[in-house]
Amino acid sequence: MLELEHGDLNDIIDRLGEDPAQDQLQLRRLKKRKLHLKDQITRLQARLIPDIIA
Question: What is the mean pLDDT of the chain?
Answer without folding.
Answer: 90
